[in-house]
Write a structure and sequence with these properties.
The structure holds two protein chains of two kinds. Chain A has helices at about 5-20, 25-40, 85-100, and strands at about 45-50, 50-60, 65-70, 75-80. Chain A is an alpha+beta fold. Chain A has one domain (about 20-100). In chain A, a hairpin with a 4-residue loop joins strand 3 and strand 4. The mean pLDDT of chain A is about 90. By secondary structure, chain B is of the alpha/beta class. In chain B, the strands form two sheets. Chain B has an eight-stranded parallel barrel, surrounded by seven helices. Chain B has a two-stranded antiparallel sheet with strand order 3-4. Classes of the chains: A alpha+beta, B alpha/beta.
Chain lengths: ~110, ~500
């Protein structure tokens, strides 16, 4: 897997979010803001409970997601597009999964 | 008949249900949010409202703003019938602005009539010895669900009596069982896509278990907000006798993570104007504390119940005329909250109140324990589907018509039936959906999903008569969608049309 220069920049910003002292919700909010800023992708994260995907963090005004991506057993990502190169996209999803798995959930 | 050891278990179970600390934490200076003196004062101070003030309040409702209690109190005291006509018309306009012309359908499923409470108006009450007690096994839940799916339903509200045998673990098992059921339809399979729960108040820990099971909405009705009436009807030595445990049930649900909650009152127990004020205060307190109001409001009206004199003799019974008024005032007071009219009411009245702003209703309803399976058997024997057995149900229904008939009637009125369950499966929940409703955006998506799910219904379950009327309605809806500027932005219209074609070809559960 080889990420583009632009993808590398995104991953570097994501790593900063990963290493910050924030809890999960604000981290995911920042991830959604970053996706919008860097790639014009509207997104929000959901908490998964059975068939229910409940809004958790991200763009509260974004209403028409086209893609529903399950990241872990408990969290998913809703986005309007997947325009970035496939390798960048996969690397980004892997890093977001790591953020979710390694961050203590907000109380 | 319960054994002696089972009775001991029930007693110890009851002792552990109510957690006083999970009531006290919400009180302010030891007081709850129902200030009866204030409500009485607000009703008295607005006894003779000026028509111009009423028209100003209607403008506020049309701007999709929640009313203040003083404003609702004024609406409740309008005497002029011409002004009521304006209010009915405004109610419908508000509904159309927020929810468009759709109506959402659901089916109730009663899993158990075992109950430790003794409420004066209820057929399930402990001391009612004529009630035949039953709790469904998971196989029976599956059979009942299959019968409901066969009617074309996609959404259920599951109801339980308060009893250790129907505790939260039983509820979780039933929810998971229902979600698992698939039943052959004309094209592919039908299933229940959203399971809502109507159950007794419980602790935050138990509510978290319900939340993990993926429920849709958690619904608890206060029955009456008037404290003395509550005490009179719910014996103090029962779980339901604790007014505040019930009053804060949905606060605890929010705390447990359940962000779709539903309130309600049983009209006919106390003065209907007071109960409307109680419901409004409940909605306001949820908004104030959690930023999210109730997802829906219900206003069941007391109907005859087995072994309950009160259910037929109450002095606070609500007339049809007042019922329509109270629904209208609720529509105007909380413009962005769903309103549920159930099969307790007769078809004519249901039609009337749908016209003033109700958003959800049920049909093909059977509230006997195991009642759907029995009804399907009777149908197979070419008998009436709509039979009722008073000794197996909580109350008697006013509308026992089948879903297909009600859908056809609504289609003739120009209203589209929606089986949409998309919102809670793509994050349009809690404060996000509240924002979309207040901004009149959610209704636009609902319209699209209503068309997609109505297409499914017409192809999978509709009778030839309903299909004929339904096809005309769906053509009209498609024309409106194609003309509307909102849908022409970006790729929304083309995506929708692609989804519509997919659904027409037999794909199922395609949603926006």
């Amino acid at each position: 897997m080889s990420t583009s220069n632009r993808g590398q920049k995104l991953l570097s910003e994501l790593q900063k979010i990963e290493n910050s002292a924030r809890s999960l919700r604000p981290k995911l909010r920042l991830v959604a803001e970053l996706l919008d800023k860097e790639w014009r992708i509207s997104s929000y994260f959901c908490e998964i409970k059975g068939p229910r995907w409940s809004y958790y963090a991200g763009d509260v005004d974004f209403v028409m997601p086209l893609y529903r991506i399950q990241l872990t057993d408990k969290y998913g990502l809703m986005t309007d597009q997947i325009l970035i190169p496939a390798d960048d996209w996969e690397a980004m999803l892997a890093l977001i999964r790591r953020i979710i798995e390694n961050t203590k959930e907000a109380a | 008949m319960e054994t002696a050891s089972a009775k001991v278990d029930t007693k110890s179970w009851i002792k552990n249900v109510i957690r006083q600390d999970e009531i006290d934490k919400y009180l302010i200076d030891g007081k709850d949010f129902i200030d009866e003196d204030q409500i009485t004062r607000q009703l008295k101070n607005n006894h003779n409202p000026d028509p111009s003030r009423i028209r100003d309040i209607l403008q506020k409702s049309l701007a999709i703003e929640r009313l203040e209690p003083e404003e609702t109190a004024a609406l409740l005291h309008v005497r002029d019938e011409a002004l009521w006509q304006e209010m009915y018309e405004t109610g419908l306009k508000v509904k159309q602005k927020v929810y468009d012309n759709r109506i959402v359908f659901f089916a109730p499923l009663y899993c158990s009539n075992l109950c430790v409470n003794n409420c004066a108006y209820c057929g399930f009450r402990l001391e009612n010895t004529t009630e035949k007690r039953r709790i469904l096994t998971m196989d029976e839940v599956r059979q009942e669900t299959e019968a409901v799916i066969s009617e074309g339903h996609k959404r259920m509200i599951v109801v339980y009596g308060e009893h250790p045998r129907s505790d939260v673990d039983y509820m979780v098992d039933t929810v998971r069982t229902i979600y698992d059921v698939r039943k052959k339809a004309r094209h592919g399979y039908g299933n229940i896509r959203r399971v809502n729960i109507n159950a007794a108040p419980m602790s935050v820990a138990d509510l978290k278990k319900l939340w993990e099971a993926g429920i849709g909405t958690y619904q608890v009705f206060q029955e009456t907000y008037h404290k003395q009436t509550y005490v009179d009807l719910h014996p103090a030595n029962t779980l339901k006798g604790n007014y505040r445990w019930r009053l804060y049930a949905l606060h605890r649900a929010m705390e447990a993570g359940i962000d779709d909650v539903a309130i309600g009152a049983l009209f006919g127990l106390y003065d209907w104007r007071f109960e409307v004020m109680g419901l409004l205060n409940h909605a306001i307190d949820l908004e104030r504390r959690f930023g999210i109001g109730p997802h829906t409001i219900s206003f069941p009206r007391m109907t005859p119940a087995e072994g309950s004199d009160l259910s037929t003799s109450s002095r606070s019974k609500v007339s049809d005329e007042d019922f329509k008024k109270l629904v209208t005032v609720l529509r105007l007071s909380v413009p962005y909250t769903g309103l549920i009219i159930t099969a307790r009411e007769n078809p004519e009245l249901k039609k009337e109140v749908i016209r003033v702003g109700c958003t959800q209703t049920d049909a093909s309803t059977n509230i006997g324990i195991g009642g759907y399976t029995e009804a399907m058997k009777k149908l197979a024997e070419e008998q009436n589907y709509a039979f009722q057995e008073q000794d197996k149900q909580q109350f008697m229904l006013g509308d026992t018509r089948r879903l297909d008939t009600v859908i056809r009637e609504l289609a003739e009125m120009g209203m589209i039936t929606s089986f949409c369950t998309a919102g809670y499966r793509c994050g349009r929940t809690g404060d996000k959906i509240m924002g979309l409703l207040k901004g009149c955006v959610e209704g636009k998506f609902c319209k699209l999903n209503a068309v997609l799910t109505f297409r499914e219904y017409l192809d999978d379950y509709a009778s030839p008569e309903t299909k004929e009327i339904g096809e005309r309605l769906i053509r009209k809806e498609l024309e409106e969608i194609q003309k509307e500027a909102f849908y022409r932005k970006g790729s929304l219209l083309s995506n929708f049309m692609e989804y519509y074609e997919q659904t027409s070809r037999g794909d199922r559960d395609v949603y926006i």
